[in-house]
Amino acid sequence: MQMRLTPFMVAALAFLSFWPNQASADESQCRNAMSLVGAPKYGPDFKNFDWVNPDAPKGGTVRQWANGTFDTLNPFSDKGVKAAGLGLLYDSLFTPSLDEPSTQYALIAECASYPDDFSSVTFKLRPEAKFQDGQPITPEDVIFSFDEFKKVNPFYAFYYKNVQKAEKTGDHEVKFTFDKAGNRELPMIVGELNVVPKHYWEGKDANGKQRSLAETTVEPPLGNGPYKIKSVDTSRKISYERVPDYWAKDLPVMRGQQNFDTLEFTYYRDRTPAFEDFKTGSLDIWGENQAAAWATQYNFDALKKGLVKKEAIPVKRVAPMQAFVFNLRRQQFQDPRVRQAFNLLFNFEETNKKLFFDLYQRVDSYFANSDLAATGLPQGRELEILNEVKDEVPPEVFTTEWKNPVNAQEGDYRKHQQEALKLLEAAGWKIRSEEVDDPSCGTWCKIKKTIGLSSASTARALRNDKGEQMTVEFLINGDTFERIILPYVKDLSALGIKATVRNVDDAQYKQREDNRDFDIIVDTFAQSNSPGNEQRDFWGSASADKPGSRNTAGIKNPAVDKIVDKIVFAKDRDDLVAATHALDRVLLWNNYVVPHWHYPYERLAYWDIFGRPAKLPSQTAGLTQVWWVDADKAKAVKAAKGK
């Protein structure tokens, strides 16, 4: 996940079961694993995950690229643009499994316990857990991390909203008390907590300045994870080196992982020069996110000679809702009919054919590619939940299955244009034909107009009863989406909508996004198999006006708030799935976004210097986490490059 979506911070809600799970929960049982979708695969005595090579060799360097720039090494503040890879510096109380959705295993904590009503969770810390300066990780560090994160970043304030307090209950024990019972997700939410050193952040830097988790910094921070920062060239390059005496390297949850001695990220302003460097061997791996490039740009010599490998690795995870997101704070987007019209005017099939070689599937749910996606018409428990908010949701929620428009045959798009026009007119917008200046009209052209031999240039304008034209600006921060948006802009202009594209740098983009200074942006809402508290930050009314929250659309919908609470306090898996179906359906029928597409693979190209486990994890290819440098392959590639 991108840093916006900080490593594995998408949490979930469902039937919470720990290993072992033979008796009802009580605080005397301290469990080494937590899962939101059933019993964890591995018990307390497991030796290593089956998706790693426990004897993987250590060594080598992996060189990657990052887009744009960065100005801070503090991943916890909401300020600044974070450097790539900062998650490598920090461990959490529990760590996620890359092969089991919504499942965590003990890391800094040795185990976790909780009462039957899920009103609290207590973590027993490992005495051997330590920071990279050798100091032990204490309950005070855990409490400091929790309290400070909530202060410095609105994301954490929402994420930990239901966690009332953290307190030390033993030399190696921390208890988190919740403000309500019955929220089965909260133990795992707290388990995701990264722990930072209190003594470091309460101290001063080399220049005598007081450190602050709230501020940006280019001072390499002290961590407790498998890597530390080796070197920094601000905004251009950052390198991490493996910590040889990393305290957790022999734990079952870490064995066979983090095998590279050095991880480097070099920053580029755009994709083209970065890809050229990959082709010549200056970069070692390339994650491809452009279907057209995948289909047409991998015919260079190194790949033809077998020095570079190219493969699409299947992954089994909930497809994120990537979309054009409307800023509902803007007057022109407050009518859902306008938003629906925009979806009708987006010709996905044409885009998929011309730009993506028909490789993508249209996203038709906020929880696509999973059993959480709403299908058919609501029934059973889902219908009960929706009936509680019947007067607050579109009537189509109960009568019609939501579908994206499909332009499968000639004439389909014309039909959708007509539907869009009717919606816009019903919302108070009318098309007018208006005279416009023609910059290409010279002296002779003007004379002809004057004497009636030619007519003035006209264009369509969509205006409301105040005479205001419908205008929209697509805000982006790179060239990837420009080629996708420009045809959309042309289609919008056919109905008189004045649409433009504004491409800005990363820092300006983040500032404008955080301050909600945009009309439409491209955003992605990643989900897990067990959605929960994070839905409040995505769609909740309380987060709509919080700068930096993930509710970029600005949704303030009482029905959504009520359904999200049903998710957060679901009694079991069935209840969770029903509530998620209800949420999915209500979000879709409110047309808050124009959905994009998804692809159930990770497209990877890499120089053939790697070894990897016989079985890869199901949720990700895990290249930088579980692969390793094969010395013989690396030697052969180096020799071939020299020829």
Per-chain topology:
Layout: E1 17-19, E2 33-35, E3 61-67, E4 94-96, E5 103-106, E6 109-113, E7 120-125, H1 139-152, H2 154-159, E8 163-170, E9 173-178, H3 186-191, H4 198-201, E10 227-233, E11 237-242, E12 262-268, H5 271-280, E13 285-287, H6 291-296, H7 301-304, E14 308-314, E15 321-326, H8 336-344, H9 348-356, E16 361-362, H10 380-387, H11 396-399, H12 412-426, E17 430-435, H13 443-450, E18 458-463, E19 471-476, H14 482-493, E20 498-503, H15 506-514, E21 520-525, H16 534-539, H17 558-568, H18 573-589, E22 593-595, E23 597-598, E24 601-607, E25 610-611, H19 623-626, E26 628-629, H20 631-642
Parallel strand pairs: 3-12, 19-20, 19-21
Antiparallel strand pairs: 1-2, 2-5, 4-5, 6-7, 7-9, 8-9, 10-11, 11-12, 13-24, 14-24, 15-21, 15-22, 16-23, 17-18, 25-26
Helix pairs in contact: 8-12, 10-18, 17-18
Keywords: Signal
Family: Belongs to the bacterial solute-binding protein 5 family.
InterPro entries: Peptide/Ni-bd (IPR030678), SBP_5 (IPR039424), SBP_5_dom (IPR000914)
Short description:
With 643 residues, the chain is of the alpha+beta class. Helix 8 (336-344) packs antiparallel against helix 12 (412-426) and helix 17 (558-568) packs antiparallel against helix 18 (573-589).
Question: What report would you give on this structure?
Answer:
The structure is a single chain. The protein is of the alpha+beta class and 643 residues long. It folds into 3 domains: 26-315 and 602-642, D-Maltodextrin-Binding Protein, domain 2 (3-Layer(aba) Sandwich); 321-429 and 464-598, Dipeptide-binding Protein, domain 3 (Roll); 433-463, no CATH class. It is built from 20 helices and 26 strands. The strands form 8 sheets. Strands 20-19-21-15-22 form a 5-stranded mixed sheet. A hairpin with a 6-residue loop joins β6 (109-113) and β7. α8 (336-344) runs antiparallel to α12 (412-426) and α10 crosses α18 (573-589). The chain is globular and about 90 Å long. The two termini are 38 Å apart. Mean pLDDT is 92; it is low at 1-25. Its main location: periplasm. Residues 110-543 form the Solute-binding protein family domain. One of its GO terms (cellular component) is ATP-binding cassette (ABC) transporter complex.
